[in-house]
């Protein structure tokens, strides 16, 4: 039962991403061609709302369910891994038109060919794990 | 009800995505979808051979539940909460896709030319899905996050690594969209 809230958040997330069309290959293609404000509006207002939530939440001392002040894990400092990893991710994002959230959501909309993309993404993650120590971070 | 059934505008969807992040942070977790790919590797036994996957994946159980919910949410939104509506793409995008040989542009969430079974069962179509998925899975772990972890959570918490990663996302996305996709189609 303690997991029911995570199921509810996931359902809500899936509904929002479909209704916003952010799961659409077409919208991603359009975004990278700078031909519509739609995706920039979504990401922009999400980040703006997120900044407000975190800043105001911290100022007000908002506590999470474990009783600590709300916080976000800090990403370790580096340049090379973020730029190279980011570029590789971006190539795949624009080709498949789906990032890791929408991949699962789209299976729910009945696109079962997406399971091939998910399997390939799991394999890609595995290969990263194998090569991790040989890659520049 | 009509408002619910139509596509939602960006100024509604964006803040609602931030709400997803806020709820997960309030529940003492974090918003990051790509972590599940690593967890699935670990569940599959990858930790026996590769140290990167040797961790207590049971601590990530909650995130797999979020993903399960997302699949259900996708079903609800698509089959119960949507009127059949074309995606309102810009004319120039539709023209470009038309020139690349796409048909029924915006009539479904994904193009048949990539995700339809006719395409999937061809060498080209299958390669697109496998290479696309592989790049996403490899890149997201190398770069330490995806759209949810970097673009939403990382930028919301004003972290420089996430800004660098998002710039990377765009470099890769622009190369694919403007130089590689036109070669493929």
Name the average pLDDT of chain B: 95
* Shape verdict of chain B: globular
Radius of gyration of chain A: 18 Å
Instruction: Choose one word for the global shape of chain A.
Output: globular
Number of helices of chain A: 6
Largest interface: A-B, 114 and 125 residues
- Could you list the spans of chain B in which at least 5 consecutive residues all have pLDDT below 50? none
Q: Tell how many strands the DSSP assignment of chain B holds.
A: 0
Number of domains of chain A: 1
Helix content of chain A: 55-70%
Give the terminus-to-terminus CA distance of chain B.
Answer: 39 Å
- β-strand percent of chain A reads under 5%
Strand content of chain B: under 5%
Low-confidence stretches of chain A: none
Largest sheet of chain A: none
**Multimerization status:** heterodimer
Can you summarize the main beta sheet of chain B? none
The radius of gyration computed from the alpha-carbon positions of chain B, rounded to a whole number of angstroms, is 19 Å
Secondary-structure element series of chain A: HHHHHH
Pfam families (chain B): Sulf_transp (PF04143)
GO cellular component, one term (chain B): plasma membrane
Transmembrane segments (chain B): 12-28, 61-81, 119-142, 163-184
Subcellular location (chain B): Cell inner membrane
Question: Quick recap of the structure?
Answer:
Chain A has 137 residues and is an all-alpha fold. Chain A has six helices and no strands. Chain A has one domain.
